[in-house]
UniProtKB/TrEMBL annotation:
The lineage of its organism: Bacteria, Bacillati, Actinomycetota, Actinomycetes, Propionibacteriales. This is Predicted dehydrogenase. Transmembrane segments: none annotated. Pfam families: GFO_IDH_MocA (PF01408), GFO_IDH_MocA_C3 (PF22725). Residues 130-251 form the GFO/IDH/MocA-like oxidoreductase domain. Residues 5-122 form the Gfo/Idh/MocA-like oxidoreductase N-terminal domain. One of its GO terms (molecular function) is nucleotide binding.
Length: 333
């Protein structure tokens, strides 16, 4: 594909702006439209990238686009992503894949009917430190993984239009909205699917179950632990902490000292990891555009995103019922 890729962005909120800025870093890409029923929002974002504003997906598709980025709340993903896929467009859909398993299955089924690339925005896979850790694991530097820990903690998000993010009926709460990154990353870096999840939560002034811990068992024998919070003080900012431990070494880093990630090896001791340049969203969009031009494969297939969504929903079910969930058999009641 030698001509410029024509991109339409659906949604004009915070994450849509992130996508727009990421596409702007990729040569040979032109953002032609931003679609949002909130006219002033669509116009404001469109004006920053030299695009036109539209009132919805159908209008931006009619403008002639090759790619659609779905940057809207999870409860709208299925309707928008399926329609975009059926139009023949390549689709980058924000995480989680959907708010329910039924909707997630609809997107997976639609993706199986097209030759277009359908990718899901699990950006943790593209963060330089997370990506480097995956490379080290695949090289065997840590040996056989035994314990994987991933923590994402912040204050209650206040930026979503109409407060949809803090409405668990729309966002799924922190386990689906935020910890889905952790569920996805640990399965990806481990190369093995979880077979069991158990979650507990605590209420806070930010709301019910705004702090949660989940433990996981994986098919390859590894264990996982995930911490997620919307209950931390705003002054603390957004923190990510990761630890991967194997039979030959341990890898640990956090976003309070992003350039100070370190690998601990039984053979070589402590080695600092170099900072690796641009951040995740630009790398995610670059990988997606490359896949579109190459005819695939998707950098984050819908099947993987479905499993991450399913694990997050199962964790919420465990938190609600107080019982562990067997992921080899579990279905939503």
């Amino acid at each position: 594909m030698t001509t410029a890729l024509r991109v339409g962005i659906v949604g004009a909120g915070l994450i849509a702006g992130v996508h727009a800025r990421a596409y702007a870093t990729v040569p040979g890409v032109s953002i032609v439209g931003v679609a949002d029923p909130r006219e002033t929002k669509a116009q404001a974002l469109a004006s920053t990238v030299g695009a036109r504003a539209f009132d919805g997906l159908e209008a931006v598709l009619d403008a002639g686009v090759d790619v659609i980025s779905v940057c809207t709340p999870p409860d709208t993903h299925a309707e928008l992503a399926v329609a975009a896929i059926k139009s023949g467009a390549h689709v980058l859909c924000e995480k989680p894949l959907a708010g329910t398993l039924e909707d997630a299955r609809r997107i997976v089924a639609a993706a199986h009917t097209t030759q277009a690339v359908v990718c899901v925005g699990h950006v943790s896979r593209f963060e330089p430190d997370h990506q480097r850790a995956k490379e080290l694991v695949d090289e065997g530097r840590l040996g056989r993984l035994a314990m994987l820990c991933h923590s994402m903690t912040t204050s209650l998000p206040g930026w979503s239009e109409g407060g949809w993010l803090t409405d668990p009926r729309r966002s799924g709460g922190p386990l689906l909205d935020l910890a889905v990154h952790s569920f996805d990353y640990l399965s990806w870096v481990n190369g093995s699917a979880p077979t069991r999840v158990y979650a507990i939560g605590a209420d806070s002034p930010a709301g019910p179950a705004t702090y949660a811990l989940a433990t996981l068992a994986y098919a390859n024998g590894a264990m996982g632990q995930i911490e997620v919070s919307w209950a931390h003080p705003a002054e603390r900012g957004f923190k990510v902490a990761v630890e991967l431990a194997g039979t030959l070494g341990r890898l640990a880093w956090d976003y309070d000292s992003i350039n100070g990630g370190a690998m601990y090896s039984r053979q070589t001791g402590r080695t600092l990891l170099d900072p690796l340049g641009e951040r995740g969203f630009a790398r995610e969009v670059t990988a997606f555009v490359h896949a579109v031009r190459a005819g695939g494969p998707s950098p984050v297939p819908v099947e993987a995103a479905f499993q991450s969504t399913r694990t997050a929903l199962a964790a919420q079910h465990s938190l609600d019922t107080g019982e562990p969930v067997d992921l080899t058999t579990w279905e939503v009641a």
